[in-house]
């Protein structure tokens, strides 16, 4: 017997009384277990044998939901933005608008560079470029023959370039070969493409204090927002744009909290193309963010596979075209996920399908002027072509 054991003499006495047996320390533990099991009904054992695997399977199916639902307990929300009120009416002069924001109007507007990494959003690109065209000096577009997840992808812009004749004299186009490194974190490929975009911007001739918009193709600043920022002096060096979030089409208005798009007064050697938070200032109500706004069901499938978060396609049936069509018409979630929020109030408030919105007021003008062609983006048209 070890010295340590003799110290626990008192506890042993208690153990020995439990089952009325004399035993060594190890054997005692075993017998205690047996004595516990003896007390449990065999039926309970069977129920447990079934319940535990069912519970584990439930965790496997819905584990993501459980962690998301409990997020308010383990995650804290990012620091809130300082939101600048945004004033606009088409009949108010630029001098007055700048003044309302606390800025002075310039004698001539800044040059504007709109730079995007293009994946496969041809229709949304048409909306974007038509919306911004009157204000943009140079359009910069980079496309890769690889998705962020290293799947080969056709050069869709190159193949449809003829549709964008109106920007041709102002277009700097770049193509980059993917690295096709299997198993690599998709964010590495994405970062690599963003560095290439910095080079492309220099080729396009960007200079100090030119305005540069950094956003995904589907984050569309409203034209008047860019016009305001190019005409006013003293705007912040980096300002985020708060956009209205839509899903699948302008029928599903999710919230107003899209914040990743930003506008920069370019500083050579300092400004880097990025898509994360880069300042604390955000301009309210500055445009639209239409995620998964595709014409064809096949594009949904492609995007779901090519997405940076591929772990979200947890089951193959998520890619079933009929399921995708049903999800779109219901306004439900393609990945069957819970809302990513930080308070129980917001999670519960956003659970279930997104309510239908029948307002097509204040949407991009080009969309309303070409409503027949882009019908699927407007309220009341959730059926998609199979493509
Ligand atoms: C806007 O201004 C134009 C020209 O000054 C004027 O004809 C029009 O009635 C104004 N619209 C509104 C809604 O005030
Ligand atoms: C992607 O582009 C690069 C550079 O042009 C080329 O070397 C590579 O073969 C292309 N890969 C595919 C899968 O098209
Ligand atoms: C978004 O903001 C607008 C204007 O402030 C408001 O009318 C609308 O209800 C908001 N929509 C959602 C879904 O939060």
UniProtKB/TrEMBL annotation:
One of its GO terms (molecular function) is beta-1,4-mannosylglycoprotein 4-beta-N-acetylglucosaminyltransferase activity. It comes from the Eukaryota. One of its GO terms (biological process) is N-acetylglucosamine metabolic process. Keywords: Membrane, Transmembrane, Transmembrane helix. InterPro entries: Glyco_trans_17 (IPR006813). The keyword Isomerase does not apply. One of its GO terms (cellular component) is membrane. The chain crosses the membrane at residues 40-61. This is Beta-1,4-mannosyl-glycoprotein 4-beta-N-acetylglucosaminyltransferase. The lineage of its organism: Eukaryota, Viridiplantae, Streptophyta, Embryophyta, Tracheophyta.
